[in-house]
Every structure is written in structure tokens, then in C-alpha cells.
Amino acid sequence: MGFSVGIGLTNDCNLSCAHCYRDTQRVENLSLAQIQLICAQLPVDAMGFGTGENAKNPEFLQIVDYLHGRGVRLSLASNGYSLMALDDAHLQMFHDVEVSVDFANEHQQDAFRNPGNWALVHEVIARCQALHVPVSLLATLMSVNYDQMPELVDLARRLRVHLRVNAYQSVKTDVFRLTYAQFWHGYRTLFATAHVISCAEPVVRAAMGFADSHSPCGHTSIRFNPHGQVIPCVYWPTAATMPTIADLPRLGASVLESREFLAARQTPAVAAACKCQGGCASRRALRGELNAHDAYCPWSRGEDPRLVWTAAPAVDLMRSRNVCTTIVT
Ligand SMILES: C[S@@+](CC[C@H](N)C(=O)[O-])C[C@H]1O[C@@H](n2cnc3c(N)ncnc32)[C@H](O)[C@@H]1O
Ligand code: SF4
Ligand code: SF4
Description:
This protein is an alpha/beta fold. The protein is built from twelve helices and ten strands. It has a ten-stranded mixed beta sheet.
């Protein structure tokens, strides 16, 4: 089986959302030559573009052409900008795409992103549906929208798309960090109003009753940031010493044995008996407590919550295990 690669072709963006983890110090772009090097050194099955607005990369179309030509399954997360920048033929080269929506009403969405974003999101969804490109809503569960999950489910239902939810990670600011109660309220109300296609958020997965709930991170999922660094997760605290794309000819797939990857898949000793096995490594690393419990771990608090949830019919729940997204319908 090949790798599912997450990649940021650029950290450039047309917006500057307050919660965003991307590095805004200076604009950096990956080149087509670097993408070709990755594909020459690793068996890449799928590539998902994120981090900035990827159409801002000067070689974006050449990169999409190249990867599509190699049969790599492509996906893209966007605020709408990159999805509108693509012509029909290039948009149809994507296996599926996501458009970010964090609030279920125009006023709050436009205030959080930028004026006109709500209308753009709707335009993008209509365009993708007309071109038969599967499109989902992508919401970040934060302290400012944790109580809007039912409304977001309802919006997704009205638009006839799936909803993907990722928990906020405090990369640059704690302003949007979820409290323990908000985190669980968000997932509880999400599952109360929607059917679950897949969930790979480790703590939530454990509370759903899955035995294989240890974090999938650092195993088969590889991320490349716009600086060219190879990282186990987009939120992982970066250091100058991390391996880069230029190291791949020397390291090949053994890049998965680098210090960061080993640390990401290490279960903290204190969590060895926990159902979540330490949960999310990035969340622990960002708190500077890699060897502690996940901040949202209920078992370390003596609680044993059982989330009530319903599986979406006829969907393989083992899908999407290499990212911590929760997908509902
Ligand atoms: C970084 S953006 C890149 C793609 C595109 N610009 C967009 O906004 O969808 C990808 C997703 O990450 C989310 N995101 C940004 N900062 C985050 C953070 N600190 N924690 C969790 N998700 C975050 C965004 O809301 C968006 O849904
Ligand atoms: S649109 Fe996406 S990449 Fe741009 S600032 Fe917002 S979350 Fe970050
Ligand atoms: S669960 Fe894994 S991919 Fe998700 S934020 Fe944590 S370390 Fe990153």
C-alpha cells in the first residue's frame, strides 16, 4: 500500500483567519521538481492539498497535471478561492474537495472569514456538484462554534454534502481552544444529529467504542509543509533539524523512523492503560507535554463516556483512518 500524503504547496493565502495555523512569516512555495522528487522516492497513492490556498502556488496547475498523470488521487481543502481558480478540466482531476465553513449562517461566517465568503462557498458547492466533483463542508470545531454542530449538520444536509469536522489545535493562539466540556459537547451534539461515516480523532474514536483507537499519526500518513519539511502532522511543532524533501533520496520511506515520527507514535507511559492510548500526539506536543495525557482524555479523569452514535448505512467505517477528521452525513 502506498502513502497518503498531506501537503501544503504554499503558505500564501488570500485571507488571514484568526485561528489559522499556517506560518505567515514569509511566503514559501513547493516546486514541481520537489513534488517529482517526493513521487520518485515514495510510493504515493493519494495527495491532499492544504495549509494555504494552493492555487497561489505559481506551479499549481503543472503540479496537478503531473500528479493526475501519475494516477495519484487528489484532494484539496479551500476557502473557495482555489476551487474557483481552477478551470473545469483541472477541477475534475480531483477525487474530492472540501470547502471550509465554520458557522452555519452568513453573518458569522463572513465575519470570521471575509465578506462574501458565505456566497462564495455556496457558489463553489454548486459548481462542484454540476461538474460531479464530490465536495464536503469542512468545519473546525472551536470555542466559538462548538454549539453549532446541529446547525452545521443541517446546512450540510440542505446542500446535500458531507460534513467533515476537525478539532481546533492551539498552534498560534489559545483563543479558539476548546475546553474539555466544549470538546465533548461538540462531538456529542454532532453525533446526535448526524450519521457517522468515519472518525479518526483518537480520543473520540475510543469513546465510540473502537478498540483500535490509538492515534494513526506517524504511521502511514506523511505531511510536507511549504518549507519542504517532512512532518507527522500539520500541527506538529516544527524545528530546523527536521528532515526535508531534499533528504528523501537518502532516507526514502525510512523518514518514518525520524525522531518526530517516532515521537508522534509513542504512547505516553501514563496513558498505557487509557482507551485512547494518549490520544493526539500533536495536542500533547503543542502543550509541551508530549508524555502526558491528551487534554480531552476522559479516562485519566476517572470518566468513561460512551458516545451514542449511528453509523451511516453502507459506508466502510475503516476509511479515512490516516487523518483525524470526523466525517458525518
Ligand atoms: C489551513 S486551511 C487550508 C485550506 C484553506 N485555506 C481553507 O481554509 O480551507 C485547512 C483547514 O484547516 C483549518 N484550520 C486552520 N487553522 C486551524 C487550527 N489551528 N486547528 C485546526 N484547524 C485549523 C481551516 O479552518 C481549514 O478548514
Ligand atoms: S483561508 Fe485557510 S489558509 Fe487562509 S487564513 Fe483562513 S484557514 Fe488559513
Ligand atoms: S490526531 Fe494525529 S493528525 Fe490529528 S492533530 Fe493529532 S497528531 Fe495530528
